[in-house]
């Protein structure tokens, strides 16, 4: 029997999963376009275009960044705001509201974060390269759900729901890691202004239901977080988490915002991010050199081995010891395909790469590891899902 709370949120879930699946295709296209552009005769123009500087604002409130960092620091705040909305929805009305339903994806996500980080630290060389332990930790839900969507009914709602829940917990952990380990020295006066803005937002949330009323305040909070030294995208997460999950004056604010901004995030922000960050010049033996570096293998093995074994073992262990349960109707055998697909760590992995490294050589090695690891994880997950679904079909 399908849980009643799942029936209530099924339309939202179906719309979300459909958008993520189609967004995965757009993300692939943007990534391919970036790689083709960077390795074409116009490759020099790729780097020069994204490093053009743009100033927005006036006086002490002006911000000057190159186009790549306007996307990474600015537009990605929209992506993380949507992530915050998804987290809030799952915590209040979704799969993470009931203890037993929440424990399993939380335990699985922890396994899928700790083991990749450990593998990275064991394999990667010491020194500056060791700063990238956070790179293989996160799951790219658009790519992963896109692979599941290719299998249609063979990948049931339970598998998609488990993958979604694990990815959301992954995102929570990644946000904490970014804030704690990949931000600069904190300027407390600016952080205080950001906190004050969030407090005003919390008070307004009890009375004001129009999302547009919050836009000026959100821009001030974003700017204050940027100036504080904490990565600016954390402002988006904080605002998403503060959005009321229940109707305000009869208006479903969270659902409206997610319905409005999720397509923008999936079809505009993330493809632009891929276009600006995925283009690495692999000519002149760069690919061969990266393939021989320990950092590249640390990222790739973290994604393929760390995610698959970490998620799968932790999920089945939680089920075995009775501390958590799989989504209704999901066969335990589908845990391993889901775990493998959790190794598709693209968007947030690239994002953390840009924060972890300043050396272009290390950045290239990490990105090659991300591409190789994500492709291998996608192939492994698809193969496992195909095998499991064929066995289930024979049994039935």
Name the beta content range.
Answer: under 5%
> Would you identify the CATH architecture?
Up-down Bundle
Distance between the termini: 19 Å
Number of strand segments: 2
Cα radius of gyration in angstroms: 21 Å
Count of helical stretches? 15
User: CATH topology, which one?
Assistant: Na+/H+ antiporter like fold
Low-confidence stretches: 1-8
Corresponding CATH superfamily: Na+/H+ antiporter like domain
Largest sheet: 2 strands, antiparallel
Number of separate structural domains: 1
Structural class: mainly alpha
Helix content: over 70%
Arithmetic mean pLDDT:
86
Task: Describe the model.
Helices cover 71% and strands 2% of the residues. The chain has 396 residues and is an all-alpha fold. The chain has one domain: Na+/H+ antiporter like domain (Na+/H+ antiporter like fold), CATH 1.20.1530. α3 (67-92) runs parallel beside α9 (233-242) and α6 (157-181) packs parallel to α13. The longest helix has 36 residues, at 360-395. Residues 1-8 have low confidence and may be disordered.
Question: In short, what is this structure?
Answer:
It contains 15 helices and two strands. The protein has 396 residues and is mainly alpha-helical.
């Amino acid at each position: 029997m399908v849980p009643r709370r799942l029936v209530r949120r099924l339309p939202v879930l179906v719309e979300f999963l459909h958008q993520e699946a189609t967004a995965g295709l757009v993300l692939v296209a943007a990534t391919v376009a970036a790689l083709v552009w960077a390795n074409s005769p116009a490759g020099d123009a790729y780097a020069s275009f994204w490093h053009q500087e743009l100033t927005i604002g006036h006086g002490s409130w002006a911000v000057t960044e190159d186009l790549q960092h306007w996307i990474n620091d600015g537009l990605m705040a929209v992506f993380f705001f949507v992530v915050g909305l998804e987290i809030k929805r799952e915590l209040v009305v979704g799969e993470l509201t009931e203890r037993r339903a929440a424990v399993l994806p939380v335990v699985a996500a922890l396994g899928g974060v700790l083991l990749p980080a450990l593998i990275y630290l064991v394999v990667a060389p010491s020194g500056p390269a060791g700063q990238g332990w956070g790179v293989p930790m996160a799951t790219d839900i658009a790519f992963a759900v896109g692979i599941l969507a290719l299998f249609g009914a063979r990948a049931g709602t339970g598998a998609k729901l488990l993958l979604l829940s694990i990815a959301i917990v992954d995102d929570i952990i990644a946000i904490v890691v970014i804030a704690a380990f990949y931000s600069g020295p904190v300027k407390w006066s600016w952080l205080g202004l950001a906190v004050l803005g969030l407090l005003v937002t919390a008070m307004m949330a009890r009375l004001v239901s129009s999302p547009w009323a919050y836009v000026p305040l959100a821009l001030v909070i974003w700017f204050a977080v940027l100036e504080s030294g904490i990565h600016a995208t954390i402002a988006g997460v904080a605002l998403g988490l503060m959005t009321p999950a229940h109707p305000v004056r009869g208006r479903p604010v969270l659902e409206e915002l997610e319905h409005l901004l999720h397509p923008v995030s999936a079809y505009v922000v993330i493809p632009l991010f891929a276009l600006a960050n995925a283009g690495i010049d692999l000519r002149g033996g760069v690919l061969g050199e990266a393939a021989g570096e320990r950092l590249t293998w640390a990222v790739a093995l973290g994604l393929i081995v760390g995610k698959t074994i970490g998620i799968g073992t932790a999920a089945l262990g939680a089920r075995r010891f009775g501390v958590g349960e799989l989504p209704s109707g999901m066969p335990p055998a589908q845990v391993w395909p889901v775990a493998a697909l959790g190794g598709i760590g693209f968007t947030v992995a690239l994002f953390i790469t840009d924060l972890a490294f300043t050396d272009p050589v290390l950045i290239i090695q990490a990105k090659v590891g991300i591409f190789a690891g994500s492709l291998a994880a996608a192939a492994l997950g698809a193969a496992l899902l195909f095998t499991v679904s064929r066995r289930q079909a024979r049994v039935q």
